[in-house]
Fold these 3 entries.
Entry 1:
Amino acid sequence: QVQLVQSGPEVRKPGASVKLSCKTSGYTFTSHGLSWVRQAPGQGLEWVAWIGGYSGDTNYAQRFQGRVTLTTDRSTTTAYMELRNLRYDDTAVYFCARDEGQRLAKFDYWGPGTLVTVSS
Amino acid sequence: QSVLTQPPSASGTPGQTVTISCSGSSSNIGNNLVYWYQQFPGTAPKLLIYKNDQRPSGVPDRFSGSKSGTSASLAISGLRSEDEADYFCASWDDSLSAKLFGAGTKVTVL
């Protein structure tokens, strides 16, 4: 069965960086892309970025350009998201989700989410 | 303010049909596929409808999706108490080159 297991909660100060992981299993990693979606407390869903499982191509939401980097490790079928220069409003739960395609919005399997808290 | 517009709330009594709208434009819904997600508090979203009107296996046929022009809808028929959740529409946007979500609609079963 498809599983996405995410790393544990993080607390960072403003201006710091955080790197989250998403370990996948149960499917061919290179056959699907993966997106990161975040949800601030009490708010809706916001797409952050996408990475192709085979190509490693990336697409970042404009508001995160320059602050976020997605990478993958095919050997461990793990995806990573690094977010830099953290701000208070980056406090959110960050979900990784298997993504069928770059120009689609089909997230068919989700990780449980990682809470990132930005606090001084 | 989201590019995809959803009503913030919808409600109905058990057995009724509730319909949630998602309004966009030619750069997103009008030219791309629409997806719907269901989310319960404290949990990850779940894919409910894909490719405008397709249900993944395991999703009850009480849930149905449709699309017309630059708008889409999710209908929940035979409403049950366990349908009380947040519902989000999503689509790709050609102009923004981004995946978009609506702001979400909270469904309450009265």
Note: The CA atoms of residues 21 and 31 of chain A lie 19 Å apart.
Entry 2:
Amino acid sequence: DQQVKQNSPSLSVQEGRISILNCDYTNSMFDYFLWYKKYPAEGPTFLISISSIKDKNEDGRFTVFLNKSAKHLSLHIVPSQPGDSAVYFCAASDYNDMRFGAGTRLTVKP
Amino acid sequence: EAQVTQNPRYLITVTGKKLTVTCSQNMNHEYMSWYRQDPGLGLRQIYYSMNVEVTDKGDVPEGYKVSRKEKRNFPLILESPSPNQTSLYFCASSLYSNEKLFFGSGTQLSVL
């Protein structure tokens, strides 16, 4: 039972344009949401997070949006850079549990 | 440097031969966890530990054991590995259970 879903296995964008990665969750008890970035041969690294009391969090080129009623969050990267090419995992957490999506492979073309 | 160290990076073994993947963190984190990554399935939790001597099953615990005798170490033990345990394994830690995780570099395990 996948409680966190990333329905796009891959995404390709042009350098300088916006990348939008999407994530849906089913468990309304999740109250903290995170995005991790993973390069080949490395472990995932934390990128940005948002708590359920907010609907937006920004950190430089990265913005995460949360729509609690739709149980949906998205990660926006503006402008996209070739170094952003990686696999992005969405995660959702309640007190005891952090669940991950299957990941979206982002390719940013020069 | 704050880090999670897991060893080995690569391991090829045969069915039934016991193995241990070590994990150590130097950040004094309370929470540690093991995940496996498989294509199309993302990261699935195997076991986690909220503190020393406290461990609990995650989503896919069958065939695995863990122990948490010291705060910094959280080894993953496969008593009798089988080919369906061929996967990429990650150890992770965080200060508390619902905070951002710090991951190790991964262990690619192949069971023949």
Note: Chain B has a mean pLDDT of 95.
Entry 3:
Amino acid sequence: DQQVKQNSPSLSVQEGRISILNCDYTNSMFDYFLWYKKYPAEGPTFLISISSIKDKNEDGRFTVFLNKSAKHLSLHIVPSQPGDSAVYFCAASETGTASKLTFGTGTRLQVTL
Amino acid sequence: DAGVIQSPRHEVTEMGQEVTLRCKPISGHNSLFWYRQTMMRGLELLIYFNNNVPIDDSGMPEDRFSAKMPNASFSTLKIQPSEPRDSAVYFCASSRDRGRWDYTFGSGTRLTVV
């Protein structure tokens, strides 16, 4: 049972435009959410996170939005750059589970020139 | 800092053989995680250790899988006997404190069981 879902396996965006990656979750106990970025032949790297007490967190070109009622979060990248081409994983955790993260299946972003 | 080091990078083995994957976490990190990546299920947590003690192994798929952390600088994930459906990329990650989620992942071991 996939508790964190990324329904778009791939996304293609032109350089300079906005990239929007989506993530849905089913476990209402999740209260902390993260995005990881993965390049080929490398491990995932932490990108940005958000606590359930917030609905938005911004870090440079990256913004994560959280809609708790819809159990949905999204990652916005503005403007998109070719170096952003990678696989993006959404992850979630719940209080009391220590460091345990539940990941989605990932979305491959391709930023074209 | 060399980061999280995994070996081997690639492993091809025949069904039924024993496979051992290795991980060296970042020095000073006291939590270690083993994840498996597949197309269908994404990144799945197999097991994690805190201060060398297994905390949660509920993600270990079967008794064929076992993991150890004999000291703070080394962990192994063993599959015996291996099966074709075990083919995946296995990642090790570490973090400084329990409850911190900004893991540092290794580069992974791509396992192919034929």
Note: Chain A has no helices and eleven strands.
